[in-house]
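Memo to structure team: turn this sequence into structure tokens by end of day. - J.P.
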Amino acid sequence: MKKVTAWEVAMGIALVFLGWTGVHSGKIYNWGVSVPYPRIFGWALIMLGIGMPVAAYILRSRQGKSK
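Reply from structure team:
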């Protein structure tokens, strides 16, 4: 976990949680306005939440090899 910061992991968990609430309930609100296609948007948030720490790890591991 040295290459992935705690902030990136926390943001990933938050995005996965927000995405799952949209997938589960079928409703996501942004500033009081309903988001169109909440289940698709929820899955996109889940993928982003999983992909962000993974991408940070991959990019930082490649950066260390070039030195």
